[in-house]
Design goal:
4 helices, alpha+beta, DNA primase, PRIM domain, 246 residues, five-stranded mixed sheet, 9 strands, four-stranded antiparallel sheet, 22% strand
């Protein structure tokens, strides 16, 4: 049986989410009871029965919603352009306010570089940054190097302006920002994850619902990052609107 509130939510969010799904390979996250299923390929009886899932119209989004789909994930490599993405994760509720501060400073850094970007709440403990690189052939290793470069610049800013705040919660010998989720010795540092940037990399689309929290991956104006409250990302409180981000 369809989940009533989820179907109603996607009735209002489908139109503004569609531009982030068209002309790209798509994965979905479905929730059945306590089980979360991540699906990249269609199957018998589903809207897309073979190959990668593709979403070309609003009806397909709503069809997937009736099949318990909370979240749509878009491939970084589209038919018409490539996305540069950065996933910032505070890795724990204790770091939430500091994660917002890091996200705010990263957005300022990108603005100084004249990079027009979209910032959105990840739906859980962090933020996503994304922008289009245009119709280019991606060098994934080079793009990961760029993530490390942004992380390095952000580290300098945070150390200079806010070191005392961060080191109340992070061990003093650790960096504030790390880029590898597999580096366990720095697990209390804020992660700016370079490992999601690869040939099959995916990112949760704006306005998707995080299946673990039930919160919406809602876009945020950079100036409002510090005032953002997770409660405002509850599906019933979100008012989806078109995002001018390119």
């Amino acid at each position: 049986m369809p989940i009533e509130w989820l179907v109603k939510y996607w009735d209002k969010a489908a139109a503004v989410t569609l531009p982030f799904l068209k002309n790209r390979k798509v994965a979905v996250q479905q929730v059945f009871g306590r089980n979360i299923i991540y699906r990249r390929h269609g199957d018998k009886g589903l809207p897309d029965r073979s190959g990668w899932i593709s979403i070309d119209n609003i009806k397909q989004i709503k069809d997937w919603a009736r099949l318990h789909t909370y979240s749509f994930h878009s491939h970084l490599l589209g038919e018409k352009d490539v996305w540069f993405v950065m996933d910032m994760d505070g890795r724990g509720d204790a770091l939430w306010e500091l994660t917002k501060l890091a996200a705010f400073e990263l957005s300022k850094l990108l603005t100084r570089k004249r990079i027009r970007h979209l910032v959105k709440f990840s739906g859980r403990q962090g933020f996503h940054f994304m922008w289009s690189l245009g119709n280019v052939k991606p060098n994934w290793l080079s793009l990961r190097k760029q993530v490390r470069a942004f992380a390095g610049e952000l580290e300098i800013t945070l150390q200079h302006k806010y070191a005392s705040k961060f080191y109340k919660l992070i061990p003093k010998r650790n960096p504030i920002i790390v880029t590898s989720s597999t580096d366990r010795k720095f697990k209390r540092s804020i992660l700016l994850d370079e490992q999601i940037v690869h040939k099959n990399g995916m990112i949760r689309s704006p306005y998707s619902v995080h299946p673990a929290t039930g919160l919406v991956s809602v876009p945020i104006k950079p100036a409002e990052i510090m005032k953002f409250k997770k409660g405002s990302a509850q599906p019933e409180r979100v008012k989806p609107k078109t995002i001018p981000w390119r």
